[in-house]
Write a structure and sequence with these properties.
Layout (H helix, E strand, L loop, with lengths): L1 H16 L3 E10 L4 E12 L5 E2 L1 H10 L3 H17 L5 E3 L3 H5 L1 H4 L1
Parallel strand pairs: 2-4
Antiparallel strand pairs: 1-2, 2-3
Helix pairs in contact: 1-2
């Protein structure tokens, strides 16, 4: 586990530095109106070979290494930039850790 954690930690740091924290947009479908109401933003880390890591592969390690707030800030910035250039509504999942982190709140 230790080597895997070290490897994932390096991937997280590199993803933050290279702005490869990517929002995947999952449509939220309104079955009454038969249309997409909005999109939920799901965080992924893009690797060099166009493979994407899911949160289950890196989130816990990011919390242990104290990089989690930086991931949240990266995804938040990208989604907000997308909102500014679109008329589509987006949602971002925030954890209690996000809400309690002063820098993230700001």
């Amino acid at each position: 586990h230790t080597w895997k954690n070290i490897k994932i930690n390096k991937i997280i740091k590199k993803s933050i530095q290279q702005h490869n924290v990517i929002p995947f947009l999952q449509p939220i479908y309104n079955i009454k109106l038969h249309k997409i109401d909005k999109y939920e933003s799901l965080m992924r880390l893009k690797l060099d070979n166009d493979i994407f890591l899911k949160p289950s592969e890196f989130l816990q390690i990011s919390k242990q290494s104290k990089l989690y707030p930086r991931l949240t800030q990266e995804i938040f910035t990208k989604v907000v930039d997308g909102i500014n250039s679109s008329k589509v509504e987006y949602s971002i999942n925030l954890s209690v850790d996000d809400i309690l982190d002063k820098q993230t709140r700001n």
